[in-house]
Amino acid sequence: MIAITVKVFGGLRDEFGTAESRVELAPGSSLGALLAQIRRDKPAFGQRLDEGLAKGYLNILVNGRNARFLDGMDTRLRDADIAAFL
Predict the structure, then answer these.
(1) Backbone dihedral region for residue 16 (phi beyond 0: left; psi -120 to 50: alpha; all else: beta)
(2) Which among 69, 73, 70 is positioned nearest to 29, based on CA atoms?
C-alpha cells in the first residue's frame, strides 16, 4: 500500500471535515483512484469535487504541481505524495 497525504483548503474543508488526512491506496494508483476513494469515504466532499472539476474552479496539486499540467486524473501517485485540493 502507498500512503497519500490529502490537504484541503478553503471552503472545501467543511465537507472534508479536516485540513489534512492520509489515504491508503494500492501501489501504482492514479489521482483518479484517489478521488474515487475519497468519494466513497466522504460523499459530501465528493459532490463538491465533481462540481469543482466540472466548472473548472477546483485545482488539485500533486507535490505542488497542478495535475492539469501532469497527466490529469491519470497522474500516478507514489508513497508519501501530497495531494492538495484548493
Answers:
(1) alpha
(2) 73
Q: Which architecture does CATH list for 2-85?
A: Roll (3.10)
Q: What 3-state DSSP class applies to 51? A: helix
Q: What is the pLDDT of residues 25-80, one digit of tens each?
A: 999 999 999 999 999 999 988 888 888 887 888 899 999 999 999 999 999 999 99
- Domain spans in the chain, listed from the N-terminal domain onward: 2-85
Residue 11 sits at φ, ψ, to 5 deg, of: -65, -20
The single-letter code of the amino acid at 51 is E
CA angle 12, 82, 17 (to 5 degrees): 30
pTM for this predicted structure: 0.92
Question: Looking at the chain, how many residues does it have?
Answer: 86
What is the Cα–Cα distance from 61 to 41, expressed in whole angstroms?
A: 20
